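Service request form, structural biology core

Requester: graduate student, group of Dr. S.
Request type: structure prediction, single chain
Budget code: on file
Notes: please return the result as C-alpha coordinates.

Sequence provided:
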Amino acid sequence: MIDTKKLTIEEAAEMMKKGEMTSVDLVSACLQKIEEKNKELNVFLEVFSDALEQAKKADEMIKNGKGTKLTGIPLAIKDNILITGRKVSSGSKMLENYVATYDAFVIKKLKAEGVVFIGRVNMDEFAMGSSTENSAYGPTRNPIDSSRVPGGSSGGSAAAVASGMALGALGSDTGGSIRQPASFCGIVGMKPTYGAVSRSGLTAMSSSLDQIGPFAKTSQDAKIILECILGKDKMDSTSIELSPTPGVGKKIGVPRDFLKEGVDAEVLQNFEETLTKLKNKGYEIKDVVMPYLKYSLPVYYIIMPAEVSTNLSRLDGVRYGLREDGNSVFDVFKKSRSKGFGAETRRRIILGTYVLSHGYYDAYYNQAWKLRRAITKEYEDIFKDVDFVMTPTAPTTAFKFGDKKDPLQMYLEDIFTVSANIAGLPSISIPSGFSSNGLPFAVEFTGRTSSDLSLFDIEKDLRDNI
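Core staff response, request fulfilled:
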Protein backbone atom coordinates (compact mmCIF):
# COMPACT_ATOMS: atom_id res chain seq x y z
CA MET A 1 0.00 0.00 0.00
CA ILE A 2 1.45 3.37 -1.06
CA ASP A 3 1.21 5.99 1.69
CA THR A 4 0.76 9.12 -0.39
CA LYS A 5 0.50 11.31 2.72
CA LYS A 6 4.15 10.58 3.57
CA LEU A 7 5.70 9.75 0.20
CA THR A 8 7.82 12.54 -1.27
CA ILE A 9 8.45 13.34 -4.92
CA GLU A 10 12.12 12.42 -4.51
CA GLU A 11 11.28 9.03 -3.02
CA ALA A 12 8.59 8.28 -5.62
CA ALA A 13 10.90 9.18 -8.52
CA GLU A 14 13.61 6.88 -7.19
CA MET A 15 11.15 4.02 -6.68
CA MET A 16 9.80 4.37 -10.23
CA LYS A 17 13.33 4.53 -11.63
CA LYS A 18 14.18 1.28 -9.84
CA GLY A 19 10.96 -0.40 -10.97
CA GLU A 20 9.65 -0.74 -7.41
CA MET A 21 6.50 1.19 -8.33
CA THR A 22 4.85 2.51 -11.48
CA SER A 23 3.21 5.84 -12.11
CA VAL A 24 -0.06 3.95 -12.58
CA ASP A 25 0.35 2.52 -9.05
CA LEU A 26 1.07 5.97 -7.63
CA VAL A 27 -1.74 7.76 -9.44
CA SER A 28 -4.17 4.98 -8.48
CA ALA A 29 -3.21 5.47 -4.81
CA CYS A 30 -3.87 9.22 -5.10
CA LEU A 31 -7.19 8.60 -6.83
CA GLN A 32 -8.15 6.25 -4.02
CA LYS A 33 -7.29 8.96 -1.48
CA ILE A 34 -9.45 11.44 -3.43
CA GLU A 35 -12.30 8.93 -3.45
CA GLU A 36 -12.02 8.55 0.33
CA LYS A 37 -11.56 12.18 1.38
CA ASN A 38 -12.72 14.63 -1.29
CA LYS A 39 -16.40 14.55 -0.36
CA GLU A 40 -15.49 15.66 3.16
CA LEU A 41 -12.73 18.15 2.28
CA ASN A 42 -13.97 19.55 -1.09
CA VAL A 43 -10.45 19.83 -2.50
CA PHE A 44 -10.91 18.81 -6.14
CA LEU A 45 -13.41 20.60 -8.35
CA GLU A 46 -12.59 18.13 -11.10
CA VAL A 47 -10.56 14.92 -11.22
CA PHE A 48 -9.26 14.44 -14.75
CA SER A 49 -10.69 11.30 -16.32
CA ASP A 50 -7.49 10.58 -18.25
CA ALA A 51 -5.18 10.63 -15.20
CA LEU A 52 -4.37 6.92 -15.54
CA GLU A 53 -3.76 7.32 -19.28
CA GLN A 54 -1.29 10.11 -18.48
CA ALA A 55 0.36 7.75 -15.97
CA LYS A 56 0.72 4.99 -18.57
CA LYS A 57 2.50 7.39 -20.93
CA ALA A 58 4.78 8.46 -18.09
CA ASP A 59 5.65 4.83 -17.37
CA GLU A 60 6.65 4.44 -21.01
CA MET A 61 8.94 7.47 -20.71
CA ILE A 62 10.60 5.95 -17.65
CA LYS A 63 10.88 2.55 -19.34
CA ASN A 64 12.59 4.16 -22.34
CA GLY A 65 15.10 5.97 -20.14
CA LYS A 66 13.57 9.41 -20.71
CA GLY A 67 12.20 9.91 -17.22
CA THR A 68 13.10 12.78 -14.90
CA LYS A 69 12.41 13.42 -11.22
CA LEU A 70 8.94 14.67 -12.18
CA THR A 71 7.95 11.99 -14.69
CA GLY A 72 4.84 10.18 -13.51
CA ILE A 73 4.39 12.40 -10.45
CA PRO A 74 0.73 13.37 -9.81
CA LEU A 75 0.29 17.12 -9.34
CA ALA A 76 -2.82 19.13 -8.47
CA ILE A 77 -3.34 22.39 -10.37
CA LYS A 78 -5.04 25.48 -8.98
CA ASP A 79 -8.23 26.32 -10.83
CA ASN A 80 -6.80 29.54 -12.33
CA ILE A 81 -3.99 27.96 -14.38
CA LEU A 82 -4.89 27.07 -17.97
CA ILE A 83 -4.61 23.54 -19.38
CA THR A 84 -5.74 23.09 -23.00
CA GLY A 85 -9.21 21.55 -23.24
CA ARG A 86 -9.84 21.70 -19.48
CA LYS A 87 -12.27 23.88 -17.59
CA VAL A 88 -10.70 26.70 -15.60
CA SER A 89 -13.25 28.57 -13.50
CA SER A 90 -11.01 30.47 -11.04
CA GLY A 91 -13.41 29.34 -8.33
CA SER A 92 -16.13 31.56 -9.85
CA LYS A 93 -19.58 31.18 -11.41
CA MET A 94 -18.51 33.82 -13.93
CA LEU A 95 -16.15 31.32 -15.61
CA GLU A 96 -17.93 28.12 -14.58
CA ASN A 97 -17.97 26.66 -18.10
CA TYR A 98 -14.89 28.35 -19.55
CA VAL A 99 -12.55 25.91 -21.31
CA ALA A 100 -8.88 26.81 -21.82
CA THR A 101 -7.72 27.11 -25.43
CA TYR A 102 -4.00 26.96 -24.66
CA ASP A 103 -1.54 25.72 -22.03
CA ALA A 104 -0.05 28.03 -19.46
CA PHE A 105 3.73 28.31 -19.75
CA VAL A 106 4.19 26.29 -16.55
CA ILE A 107 1.89 23.56 -17.86
CA LYS A 108 3.93 23.25 -21.07
CA LYS A 109 7.09 22.85 -19.00
CA LEU A 110 5.53 20.21 -16.75
CA LYS A 111 4.01 18.30 -19.67
CA ALA A 112 7.47 18.01 -21.23
CA GLU A 113 8.63 16.31 -18.01
CA GLY A 114 5.80 13.76 -18.13
CA VAL A 115 3.96 15.05 -15.06
CA VAL A 116 0.49 13.62 -14.41
CA PHE A 117 -2.14 16.34 -13.93
CA ILE A 118 -4.58 14.65 -11.59
CA GLY A 119 -7.15 17.45 -11.47
CA ARG A 120 -8.00 21.07 -10.73
CA VAL A 121 -8.43 22.17 -7.15
CA ASN A 122 -10.56 24.67 -5.28
CA MET A 123 -9.62 28.26 -4.51
CA ASP A 124 -11.05 31.56 -3.33
CA GLU A 125 -12.90 33.18 -6.22
CA PHE A 126 -10.39 34.83 -8.56
CA ALA A 127 -7.77 34.23 -5.81
CA MET A 128 -9.40 36.78 -3.49
CA GLY A 129 -9.27 35.46 0.05
CA SER A 130 -7.21 33.92 2.82
CA SER A 131 -9.37 30.93 3.72
CA THR A 132 -10.91 29.36 0.56
CA GLU A 133 -14.29 30.27 2.03
CA ASN A 134 -14.96 32.56 -0.95
CA SER A 135 -15.15 29.83 -3.59
CA ALA A 136 -18.39 29.69 -5.59
CA TYR A 137 -18.21 25.90 -5.14
CA GLY A 138 -18.11 25.78 -1.38
CA PRO A 139 -15.17 25.96 1.07
CA THR A 140 -12.27 23.54 1.21
CA ARG A 141 -11.56 22.04 4.63
CA ASN A 142 -8.19 21.62 6.33
CA PRO A 143 -7.07 17.95 6.24
CA ILE A 144 -5.54 18.28 9.72
CA ASP A 145 -8.76 19.53 11.30
CA SER A 146 -11.83 19.70 9.05
CA SER A 147 -13.49 22.30 11.30
CA ARG A 148 -10.78 24.76 10.23
CA VAL A 149 -9.84 26.55 7.02
CA PRO A 150 -6.87 25.43 4.89
CA GLY A 151 -5.84 29.03 4.20
CA GLY A 152 -6.23 30.78 0.90
CA SER A 153 -6.51 31.57 -1.80
CA SER A 154 -4.66 28.39 -2.83
CA GLY A 155 -6.34 26.32 -0.09
CA GLY A 156 -7.20 23.49 -2.47
CA SER A 157 -3.58 23.12 -3.59
CA ALA A 158 -2.29 23.00 -0.01
CA ALA A 159 -5.00 20.57 1.14
CA ALA A 160 -4.35 18.26 -1.84
CA VAL A 161 -0.70 17.82 -0.85
CA ALA A 162 -1.29 17.65 2.92
CA SER A 163 -3.99 14.99 2.52
CA GLY A 164 -2.00 12.82 0.09
CA MET A 165 -4.36 13.40 -2.84
CA ALA A 166 -1.34 14.62 -4.86
CA LEU A 167 2.42 14.63 -4.28
CA GLY A 168 2.77 18.29 -5.23
CA ALA A 169 0.72 21.20 -6.51
CA LEU A 170 0.84 24.55 -8.23
CA GLY A 171 -0.74 27.64 -6.71
CA SER A 172 -0.62 31.37 -7.26
CA ASP A 173 0.54 33.95 -4.73
CA THR A 174 -0.56 37.59 -4.88
CA GLY A 175 -0.13 38.52 -1.22
CA GLY A 176 0.63 35.21 0.50
CA SER A 177 -1.77 32.83 -1.23
CA ILE A 178 0.81 30.04 -1.43
CA ARG A 179 2.70 30.60 1.81
CA GLN A 180 -0.24 31.11 4.19
CA PRO A 181 -2.16 27.94 3.18
CA ALA A 182 1.11 26.00 3.24
CA SER A 183 1.52 27.23 6.82
CA PHE A 184 -2.02 26.22 7.82
CA CYS A 185 -1.66 22.75 6.28
CA GLY A 186 1.86 21.98 7.53
CA ILE A 187 3.68 21.80 4.20
CA VAL A 188 6.19 23.87 2.20
CA GLY A 189 5.00 26.69 -0.06
CA MET A 190 7.18 29.03 -2.09
CA LYS A 191 6.65 32.31 -3.97
CA PRO A 192 9.44 32.92 -6.51
CA THR A 193 11.06 36.22 -7.52
CA TYR A 194 8.58 38.24 -9.57
CA GLY A 195 9.01 37.27 -13.22
CA ALA A 196 11.08 34.13 -12.55
CA VAL A 197 8.02 32.03 -13.41
CA SER A 198 5.90 33.18 -16.34
CA ARG A 199 2.34 34.33 -15.66
CA SER A 200 1.25 33.41 -19.19
CA GLY A 201 -1.84 31.24 -18.78
CA LEU A 202 -2.59 32.38 -15.24
CA THR A 203 -5.96 34.10 -14.80
CA ALA A 204 -4.90 37.59 -13.78
CA MET A 205 -5.90 39.03 -10.43
CA SER A 206 -3.27 41.70 -9.75
CA SER A 207 -0.69 41.64 -12.52
CA SER A 208 2.18 43.39 -10.70
CA LEU A 209 1.85 41.07 -7.69
CA ASP A 210 0.74 37.62 -9.00
CA GLN A 211 3.25 34.77 -9.12
CA ILE A 212 2.89 31.02 -9.69
CA GLY A 213 4.77 28.74 -7.29
CA PRO A 214 4.99 25.20 -5.86
CA PHE A 215 3.56 23.31 -2.91
CA ALA A 216 5.22 20.15 -1.62
CA LYS A 217 5.90 18.18 1.55
CA THR A 218 9.58 19.16 1.62
CA SER A 219 11.74 21.99 0.35
CA GLN A 220 13.61 19.61 -1.91
CA ASP A 221 10.37 18.52 -3.59
CA ALA A 222 9.30 22.16 -4.00
CA LYS A 223 12.71 22.91 -5.51
CA ILE A 224 12.28 20.11 -8.06
CA ILE A 225 8.98 21.64 -9.20
CA LEU A 226 10.32 25.19 -9.26
CA GLU A 227 13.41 24.30 -11.28
CA CYS A 228 11.11 22.82 -13.92
CA ILE A 229 8.79 25.84 -14.26
CA LEU A 230 11.44 28.58 -14.19
CA GLY A 231 12.35 30.34 -17.40
CA LYS A 232 11.94 33.37 -19.62
CA ASP A 233 8.80 33.36 -21.73
CA LYS A 234 8.27 35.47 -24.85
CA MET A 235 4.53 35.53 -24.07
CA ASP A 236 5.12 37.34 -20.76
CA SER A 237 6.93 40.66 -20.98
CA THR A 238 7.63 40.64 -17.23
CA SER A 239 9.34 37.24 -17.21
CA ILE A 240 13.06 37.02 -16.54
CA GLU A 241 15.83 34.46 -16.77
CA LEU A 242 16.67 33.76 -13.14
CA SER A 243 20.31 34.44 -12.32
CA PRO A 244 20.94 32.68 -8.99
CA THR A 245 22.53 34.93 -6.39
CA PRO A 246 25.98 33.55 -5.49
CA GLY A 247 27.36 33.21 -2.00
CA VAL A 248 24.15 33.48 0.03
CA GLY A 249 25.13 33.12 3.68
CA LYS A 250 23.52 32.45 7.04
CA LYS A 251 22.61 35.87 8.39
CA ILE A 252 18.96 36.23 9.33
CA GLY A 253 17.34 39.61 9.95
CA VAL A 254 14.38 39.78 12.35
CA PRO A 255 12.14 42.89 12.29
CA ARG A 256 11.03 42.54 15.93
CA ASP A 257 9.11 45.83 16.04
CA PHE A 258 6.86 44.40 13.35
CA LEU A 259 6.01 41.31 15.44
CA LYS A 260 4.49 43.04 18.45
CA GLU A 261 0.82 43.42 17.59
CA GLY A 262 -1.86 40.96 16.51
CA VAL A 263 0.28 37.81 16.73
CA ASP A 264 -0.85 34.82 18.80
CA ALA A 265 1.31 34.14 21.86
CA GLU A 266 1.94 30.53 20.77
CA VAL A 267 2.97 31.66 17.29
CA LEU A 268 5.52 34.07 18.79
CA GLN A 269 6.82 31.43 21.17
CA ASN A 270 7.35 29.00 18.30
CA PHE A 271 9.05 31.74 16.30
CA GLU A 272 11.55 32.42 19.11
CA GLU A 273 12.19 28.68 19.58
CA THR A 274 12.83 28.34 15.85
CA LEU A 275 15.32 31.22 15.96
CA THR A 276 17.17 29.41 18.76
CA LYS A 277 17.31 26.20 16.70
CA LEU A 278 18.72 28.07 13.71
CA LYS A 279 21.25 29.84 15.92
CA ASN A 280 22.41 26.43 17.17
CA LYS A 281 22.85 25.42 13.52
CA GLY A 282 25.27 28.27 12.90
CA TYR A 283 22.95 31.01 11.71
CA GLU A 284 23.62 34.55 12.84
CA ILE A 285 20.46 36.28 14.10
CA LYS A 286 20.35 40.05 13.83
CA ASP A 287 17.53 42.43 14.80
CA VAL A 288 16.72 44.82 11.95
CA VAL A 289 14.64 47.97 11.79
CA MET A 290 12.25 48.23 8.83
CA PRO A 291 9.95 51.20 9.53
CA TYR A 292 8.14 51.03 6.18
CA LEU A 293 7.19 47.37 6.59
CA LYS A 294 4.11 48.24 8.65
CA TYR A 295 2.67 50.00 5.61
CA SER A 296 2.79 46.86 3.46
CA LEU A 297 -0.79 45.81 4.16
CA PRO A 298 -2.45 49.17 3.36
CA VAL A 299 -0.27 49.52 0.25
CA TYR A 300 -1.32 46.04 -0.86
CA TYR A 301 -5.02 46.71 -0.30
CA ILE A 302 -4.85 49.79 -2.52
CA ILE A 303 -2.72 48.48 -5.40
CA MET A 304 -4.27 45.00 -5.53
CA PRO A 305 -7.96 46.08 -5.79
CA ALA A 306 -7.02 48.73 -8.37
CA GLU A 307 -5.48 46.04 -10.58
CA VAL A 308 -8.38 43.67 -9.84
CA SER A 309 -10.92 46.22 -11.07
CA THR A 310 -8.95 46.60 -14.30
CA ASN A 311 -8.29 42.90 -14.92
CA LEU A 312 -11.86 41.77 -14.24
CA SER A 313 -13.43 44.51 -16.36
CA ARG A 314 -13.22 42.15 -19.34
CA LEU A 315 -15.73 39.82 -17.63
CA ASP A 316 -18.83 41.78 -18.57
CA GLY A 317 -21.27 39.20 -19.93
CA VAL A 318 -20.51 40.16 -23.52
CA ARG A 319 -17.19 38.70 -24.59
CA TYR A 320 -17.01 35.42 -22.66
CA GLY A 321 -18.04 33.95 -19.35
CA LEU A 322 -21.49 33.99 -17.75
CA ARG A 323 -24.11 36.10 -19.51
CA GLU A 324 -27.47 37.29 -18.18
CA ASP A 325 -29.79 38.87 -20.73
CA GLY A 326 -31.03 42.40 -20.10
CA ASN A 327 -32.94 45.28 -21.70
CA SER A 328 -29.76 47.20 -22.52
CA VAL A 329 -26.01 46.72 -22.67
CA PHE A 330 -25.69 48.27 -19.21
CA ASP A 331 -28.41 45.90 -17.92
CA VAL A 332 -26.45 42.91 -19.30
CA PHE A 333 -23.30 44.16 -17.57
CA LYS A 334 -25.11 44.68 -14.27
CA LYS A 335 -26.98 41.37 -14.19
CA SER A 336 -24.04 39.29 -15.44
CA ARG A 337 -21.52 40.74 -13.02
CA SER A 338 -23.94 40.68 -10.08
CA LYS A 339 -24.66 36.98 -10.60
CA GLY A 340 -21.18 35.97 -11.74
CA PHE A 341 -19.12 37.56 -8.97
CA GLY A 342 -19.26 36.73 -5.27
CA ALA A 343 -19.35 39.25 -2.42
CA GLU A 344 -15.58 39.49 -1.85
CA THR A 345 -14.84 39.92 -5.55
CA ARG A 346 -17.46 42.66 -5.84
CA ARG A 347 -16.03 44.37 -2.74
CA ARG A 348 -12.53 44.51 -4.24
CA ILE A 349 -13.74 45.66 -7.66
CA ILE A 350 -15.64 48.54 -6.04
CA LEU A 351 -12.68 49.45 -3.82
CA GLY A 352 -10.31 49.37 -6.80
CA THR A 353 -12.60 51.48 -8.93
CA TYR A 354 -12.81 54.01 -6.10
CA VAL A 355 -9.05 54.41 -5.61
CA LEU A 356 -8.56 54.83 -9.38
CA SER A 357 -11.35 57.36 -9.76
CA HIS A 358 -10.83 61.05 -10.48
CA GLY A 359 -10.06 62.90 -7.27
CA TYR A 360 -8.76 59.84 -5.40
CA TYR A 361 -6.07 58.54 -7.78
CA ASP A 362 -3.41 60.89 -6.41
CA ALA A 363 -4.59 60.64 -2.82
CA TYR A 364 -4.49 56.83 -2.69
CA TYR A 365 -3.06 55.00 -5.70
CA ASN A 366 -0.07 57.26 -6.35
CA GLN A 367 0.76 57.40 -2.64
CA ALA A 368 0.63 53.60 -2.45
CA TRP A 369 3.12 53.32 -5.30
CA LYS A 370 5.48 55.74 -3.58
CA LEU A 371 5.37 53.59 -0.46
CA ARG A 372 5.83 50.46 -2.57
CA ARG A 373 9.10 51.85 -3.87
CA ALA A 374 10.12 52.80 -0.31
CA ILE A 375 9.42 49.24 0.94
CA THR A 376 11.41 47.78 -1.96
CA LYS A 377 14.33 50.10 -1.22
CA GLU A 378 14.14 49.19 2.48
CA TYR A 379 14.58 45.52 1.62
CA GLU A 380 17.50 46.34 -0.69
CA ASP A 381 19.23 48.19 2.14
CA ILE A 382 18.55 45.43 4.68
CA PHE A 383 20.00 42.81 2.35
CA LYS A 384 23.34 44.61 2.47
CA ASP A 385 23.63 43.39 6.09
CA VAL A 386 21.64 40.11 6.17
CA ASP A 387 20.83 37.26 3.79
CA PHE A 388 17.21 36.62 4.76
CA VAL A 389 14.41 38.35 6.62
CA MET A 390 12.45 35.99 8.88
CA THR A 391 8.95 36.33 10.36
CA PRO A 392 6.12 33.95 11.22
CA THR A 393 4.25 33.07 8.04
CA ALA A 394 0.89 34.02 9.56
CA PRO A 395 -0.14 35.70 12.81
CA THR A 396 -2.34 32.72 13.75
CA THR A 397 -2.66 29.01 13.17
CA ALA A 398 -5.54 27.73 11.03
CA PHE A 399 -8.75 29.31 12.30
CA LYS A 400 -12.26 27.87 12.34
CA PHE A 401 -14.81 28.55 9.63
CA GLY A 402 -16.63 31.80 10.23
CA ASP A 403 -14.11 33.13 12.77
CA LYS A 404 -13.04 35.99 10.48
CA LYS A 405 -16.37 37.45 9.41
CA ASP A 406 -15.00 40.99 9.48
CA PRO A 407 -13.10 41.54 6.17
CA LEU A 408 -10.44 43.60 7.98
CA GLN A 409 -9.72 40.68 10.34
CA MET A 410 -9.31 38.43 7.32
CA TYR A 411 -7.01 40.90 5.56
CA LEU A 412 -4.71 40.94 8.62
CA GLU A 413 -3.89 37.27 7.92
CA ASP A 414 -1.65 38.60 5.11
CA ILE A 415 0.35 40.96 7.31
CA PHE A 416 3.66 39.04 7.09
CA THR A 417 3.35 37.79 3.51
CA VAL A 418 2.32 40.80 1.39
CA SER A 419 5.64 42.66 1.56
CA ALA A 420 7.45 40.01 -0.52
CA ASN A 421 4.91 40.50 -3.33
CA ILE A 422 5.13 44.28 -3.05
CA ALA A 423 8.92 44.13 -3.44
CA GLY A 424 8.88 41.22 -5.94
CA LEU A 425 11.10 39.07 -3.72
CA PRO A 426 11.29 35.27 -3.30
CA SER A 427 9.77 33.96 -0.09
CA ILE A 428 9.19 30.52 1.42
CA SER A 429 7.05 29.11 4.23
CA ILE A 430 8.58 26.21 6.13
CA PRO A 431 6.83 24.12 8.83
CA SER A 432 8.26 24.80 12.30
CA GLY A 433 6.31 22.60 14.70
CA PHE A 434 2.84 22.21 16.17
CA SER A 435 0.64 24.10 18.59
CA SER A 436 -0.78 22.68 21.83
CA ASN A 437 -3.88 21.59 19.90
CA GLY A 438 -1.93 19.96 17.07
CA LEU A 439 -2.10 22.70 14.45
CA PRO A 440 0.97 23.46 12.30
CA PHE A 441 3.24 26.45 12.85
CA ALA A 442 5.40 27.87 10.08
CA VAL A 443 8.08 30.49 9.60
CA GLU A 444 8.73 32.56 6.51
CA PHE A 445 12.06 33.48 4.95
CA THR A 446 12.30 36.25 2.36
CA GLY A 447 15.47 36.62 0.31
CA ARG A 448 16.95 39.12 -2.09
CA THR A 449 16.00 39.08 -5.76
CA SER A 450 17.03 35.84 -7.52
CA SER A 451 18.03 34.07 -4.29
CA ASP A 452 15.15 31.62 -4.85
CA LEU A 453 17.11 28.39 -4.82
CA SER A 454 19.03 29.24 -1.65
CA LEU A 455 15.75 29.51 0.29
CA PHE A 456 15.21 25.77 -0.04
CA ASP A 457 18.40 24.95 1.86
CA ILE A 458 17.14 26.38 5.15
CA GLU A 459 14.69 23.55 5.75
CA LYS A 460 17.52 21.00 5.93
CA ASP A 461 18.82 22.73 9.05
CA LEU A 462 15.36 23.29 10.49
CA ARG A 463 13.59 20.00 9.83
CA ASP A 464 16.02 17.90 11.92
CA ASN A 465 15.04 19.94 14.98
CA ILE A 466 11.25 19.84 14.65
